[in-house]
Specification:
alpha/beta; Rossmann fold; 8-stranded mixed sheet; 4-stranded antiparallel sheet; binds adenosine-5'-triphosphate; ATP-binding; Dipeptide/oligopeptide/nickel ABC transporter ATP-binding protein; translocase
Amino acid sequence: MTVRAREEFVKPASGREDAVMEVKNLKVHFQLDEGLLKAVDGVDLTIRRGRTLGIVGESGCGKSVTSQALLRIVPASGKVEGEILLYPSDRSKIDGIDIPDGDPVDLVGLDGKGRTIRSIRGGEIAMIFQEPMKAFSPIHTIGDQIMEAILLHKTANRKEAYDIALETLRKVGMSNPEQRMDEYPHQLSGGMRQRAMIAMALSCEPSILIADEPTTALDVTVQAQVLQLINELRDHTGTSVIFITHDLGVIAEMSDEVAVMYLGKVVEYTDVDTLFYGPKHPYTKALLNSIPSVARRDRLESIEGTVPFPMNLPPGCGFYSRCPLAEDGVCNAGDIPLREIARGHRVRCVKAEQV
Ligand SMILES: Nc1ncnc2c1ncn2[C@@H]1O[C@H](COP(=O)(O)OP(=O)(O)OP(=O)(O)O)[C@@H](O)[C@H]1O
């Protein structure tokens, strides 16, 4: 194993004992012909052991690009800056660098194609997404594909890899797991394919599972089963989950803490109960007012206007043009900082106290 100069990647521990990952001032900017597109623009997140962080926001707010950055799979045209500090659960899984106990690895400093990040992807951080066919090759069996991940990250022994794959399929509630091992992705139903993808992601016992809209394409009953499965697996394995969705109903079901994103920035960050019962950003409030509910008798409100395109934006709050509390000269004068208005509750709004 080549030991690279550790100061390049390994940062001193910050003392946050339950953090498995800390994201600090993350930026992903795309230089396009028309200008600089700030897809992610100064995001801070803390992923805690065994907990779920929900990331919610309308289409285009930067949720997926944030998750791509965490895995270092942003397309080459995107420039990634800031820090993504991973506190590995199992240092032996990480190839190519020597990390002293307790210190994190800064993923931004790693070569995006190097063996260290390749051992972290799948080994320490795994991802599931909306369309399982993207995760599976159509020409190999489910068993072979799950085993391939295990052989890469966990063991070189094929028999052992087979047993782990089978056991993981059992854990995710797959019917007839032995038979499924020999089947091809197209032979499975949508819900089963989703379970198989979750099994592949969890087979190497990652410390973080990133779920990007994993149930959007499923019907309501199967969606509920898959969400419940992710929660159960998190509780049994202690894996942390980053759950990305535009659906606040799913956020309520899944999250311990929630980051609300708007135009590449986190605008509100708090625990799930405070988000639903005491939101302090006008955008969060507007999102909550737009969720349909069986119990609601009042009229559903839609959010006025559309999300601006994250390029050549005017100074000040990104929600200014749509906000009922917007005040000229105050909200559009300069950058609005994310400030802590109560313990663990951060809001990017100068009018938060009036919401
Ligand atoms: N490869 C890319 N090159 C240029 N711009 C990109 C690229 N990928 C994403 N973007 C832009 O970055 C912004 C954030 O996109 P992102 O996909 O993260 O949004 P999202 O919140 O996940 O939306 P959705 O819910 O629709 O997936 C958008 O304006 C998008 O057009």
